[in-house]
Amino acid sequence: MSLQKNKAIDKISVVILCAGEGKRIKDLTKDIPKPLLKIEALNNKSILHDTINKLVSLGIKNVMIVKGHLGHKIEDFVESLINSNSELKYIIKLIDSGTRYKLGPLYSFLSITKSNLDVENIPVYLVIPGDTIFQEDLLNSILNVVMDNIPSIKHHPFVFYKDVQTNTLKNKFKEKLPLQISISEIEKR
Q1: DSSP state, 85?
Q2: Cα–Cα distance between 137 and 143 in angstroms, integer?
Q3: Which of 12, 62, 146, 187 is most open to solvent, judged by the fewest CB atoms within 10 Å of its CB?
Q4: In the chain, where are the structural domains located?
Q5: SS3 94
Q6: Cα separation of 108 and 46, whole Å?
């Protein structure tokens, strides 16, 4: 990573939304938040653990985790991570969405404005769902695009998304679990 990119990455704060109830898989999320579900393909680590590890390995120094439903479990998990790696106490900040998460992800994200954190001095936010497994190369690509475009992003936010082949996923996993996939159409630019 170039010196310029090293400086640019310090301007990025990643917000991980972990506040939702996981209603579509409520049998699994009744007692545990979806981001804390352990995944066999991740060596029985949780989705949130995997995401944090990848972000830190890519050089992110500011991670905000928005908690809501079963937030105490997210808090306990973060505390255990910090106990195992004390450097994380300078990287991870918890934000309580209260009941705003019930209004949707945007309200969960906006909880950062109600926190005691100095959010005015963070030029760029990358908001990601806490219940999604990201490939490290995809996160790296997104971060590189963000770092290359910080001046524009500060004034003109934009959305990344990866085109999902819904039918391919449904066919691949139909015998393993009942997969429900939601697709939102957004404008491509």
Answers
A1: -
A2: 10
A3: 187
A4: 3-161
A5: strand
A6: 21
Size (the chain), residues: 189
- Sole residue written with tokens 């704060």: 13
Q: Which CA distances in Å does 24 have to 28, 130, 159, 178?
A: 9, 15, 24, 10
Residue 18: DSSP 8-state = E
**SS3 sequence of 95-141:** EECCCHHHHCHHHHHHHHHHCCCCHHHCCEEEEEECCCCCCHHHHHH
Inter-residue long-range contacts of 164-170, CB under 8 Å, 24+ positions, other chains counted = none
* Residue 170 contacts residue 87 (beta carbons within 8 Å): no
Copy the structure tokens of residue 53: 């590890």
Please provide the CATH number assigned to the domain covering 3-161: 3.90.550.10
Is 153 within 8 Å of 41 (Cβ atoms)? Answer: no
Q: Tens place of pLDDT for every residue, the chain, 189 residues?
A: 554 556 788 888 899 999 987 777 777 767 889 999 999 989 999 999 999 999 999 999 999 999 998 999 999 999 999 999 999 999 999 999 988 888 888 778 888 877 777 766 667 888 899 999 999 998 998 888 888 888 877 776 655 555 555 556 556 555 544 434 444 344 444
Backbone angles phi, psi at 175, to 5 degrees: -90, -15
